[in-house]
Every structure is written in C-alpha cells, then in structure tokens.
Task: structure prediction
Amino acid sequence: MRPFDGHRVLLGVTGGIAAYKSAALARDLTVAGAEVDVVLTRSAREFVGAITFEALTSRPVHDQLIATGHALDHIRLPRAAHVIVVAPATADFIARAAAGRADDLLTASLLAAGDVPVLVVPSMNDRMWAHPQVRANVQRLREIGYHVLEPDTGALASREEGSGPGRMPEPSAIRAHIARLLEPASVLTGKRVVVSAGPTREALDPVRFLSNHSSGKMGVALASAAWRRGADVTLVAGPLAVEFPTGPRVMHVETTQDMADAVRQALAGADVLIMAAAPADFRPDQVAAQKIKKGDAAPPLAMAFTTDILQATRDARRPGCVVVGFALETEQVEAHARAKLEKKELDLIVANRAEEGAGFGFDTNRVTILGRDGSITELPLQSKVDVADAILDRVAGILDGR
Ligand code: CTP
Result:
C-alpha cells in the first residue's frame, strides 16, 4: 500500500516562478499512489510545459475551458477529485478566485467543486503578500472554506532575501497538508495531543554535555501521524537528529527540566500525552562555570537525578487525558515495561528491546504495546511511521471509550 493509493488530486498550477516546484509535487504525489489531474492556467504555461506534467503524472494535462470534446471538464474534473490543490497560487489567481470568476478552467472548476476540500498554496513577492488587497482576498478565500497555507519566509526567486513571507512551501510540506485533508474525520480530529521526542542534554561545563542516542524519529512519526489525523499537536522536542514535521507546533528544549516545564505548559487542555522522548535520567551534580581543564587526573563525576517528567507533571493532566509512555529495555522487556506502566499510571506503554533494527536511530521498530487493561499486543518489525499509526489506533480506541 502506498500512502495516496486510491486518491485523486486535482492540481491547479498558476503562473508563478514556483511552478517548477509543482512539477516535483506532481511527481511525488504520483509516486505515492495518487492519480493527479493537472490544470494549467494560461500564464502557468509560460513557466512550465504541459508535457512535463503529462510525463510526470502519466495523465493528460488540461488547460482549456472551451475546447471541442472537453466542454464539461470544469464539472468532471473537480467532481472526480478528492482534493483540489492550487500550487503555486499567484496574487492574481487569489484575486480571481476571491471574486468568484470563472473565466478559465481552474477558476470554473473551483466553482463546481461542491464539498471537495480546496488547498491554496500562495507564492509571491513578500511585499505583494503583505498588501492589504491580497490580505483581504486571502481572508475571503478562508471565509469560503478554502485552506490557505501561510507562505514560507526565505530567499525569493528575485534573489532578494525576502524580509517577510511569500515563498511557496516545499512540496513535502504541501504533501503533508494534502494527506491531512484526505484523512476521514476520526476521534482524534480536533483533539489536543502532546508528543515529546528526542534526547535531552545535561551540561557538564560550557562546552560539554551528557546525552543519549535518541534521534527523535519515533516521536516525530507520532506527532506527524496525529496531526495528519486532524489533531492539534504540540511536539516538545529535544535536540533532534531528524527534520521537524510539517504541522505540529514545536517547543524546543535542551535539558530534562526544560522538557518537564514545556510538557507541563503544553498539557493545559490536552487530551493525549505521548512521552516518546528519552530524557536524561541523570545530570552532573555541578555544572562547571568554565571549561574543565585536563589537569593531572580525570575529574570525578558526581551525578544527581533529573525530574521524572511523567511523574512530575501528573497534576497538570486533566482527568481523562490518555497517557502513553515508552520503555526501552535490554532484558525482561515485558516485566519492566508493566512495572513502569503501573508506577507512572499510564494507559499504554510501548516497550521495545534495544536490538538491531529497533530503537534509537533506526527507521524501523519492533514494539509490544501493553495496556492498563492487561492487554499485550506484539507488533512485527515495521517502519516507525507504521508503528506510530498502530499506537494512535490504540489511543483512538481509548479516547472513544471515555
Ligand atoms: N521519562 C520521563 N522522565 C524521565 C525519564 C523518562 O518522563 N526523566 C519517560 C520516558 O519518556 C518514557 C518513560 O518515562 O515514556 C519510561 O522511560 P525509561 O527511561 O524507559 O524509564 P525510567 O523511568 O527512566 O526507568 P529506567 O531508566 O530505570 O529503565
């Protein structure tokens, strides 16, 4: 199964320089299993050719509102789609869509879209994006119910360093938003989910720290999957070795105490807490103010306990909050995990043995999920993305019953 199998995307491309990125998006969606119907506006054809999109999607490309044999394309194409995406959306296209124009195939298709979700991905110079007329047009599209992404800040095609947002988001981010719009409503839709990920660092002196090998992959997979399922997600992230996901709000932390403070703050109103992080359990008792010099003997290392975040934030959880912990063990995996589940009053604990292909740094994981109800579910070795979905299915089941 590919993630977009069985889904049809109508991709509208308008005349902006970022149209080249839409070719990458069309390819990415097609490879992921989607059937992509591309509609080009007249000005888009000045930037990219129909043949490029035809080759990438293996489907005919559409660019005429009025053409023999295609009189009803503007009705047929949006009806067949599960989602309509306009990327890039220029200031001119946004103005025409906001005014309800229907003078080309793309705008006419939008009017015939019915309840098919529409994602608009703006791309323009930062000063144009900031113009009150554009702001008003975007506001109008949002009132109509279109999902309008905020552009990125960064280098613009004009090679001016944009001082404000305007740049089209990357195809990977657009793809994540499409996946969210394609997801059917579920018990997680609109729920507030807090996920912690990665290691923490405990300073020894101004240039050294103690930490562990956690990459943050499992936590990031969970945060992404929960967001894709429509949840409002806060990711409390230590220093990660992977990219931050599209969607979740990120709180950056360094030490275990920082993570405890951030989790406490994020827990206000939260429905779910998933502690996938590997916070340091010990910290140097003293942090040297200056770099520790080599000297004649190795310095002694006195250690102190850090805060146990699950225990210390218990009072900040609202009643009914579903709490999931992780347990990475090297021996007696189930017994140790069950003891942690009880001690930390968890609903679920996800246990794994440190082994080749599972745990810190790997893209795959082999876990056993233990429930407060006594259940034990052993999952096969699979990608962390699939493990995340299996965990969220269990969380959804518990939320459903509360
Ligand atoms: N955890 C936590 N605060 C800590 C350490 C761990 O909240 N200071 C959380 C982890 O995020 C995980 C669960 O507690 O969800 C279990 O973590 P683990 O390190 O396996 O357990 P510990 O309680 O630290 O026990 P031990 O290290 O002795 O196995």
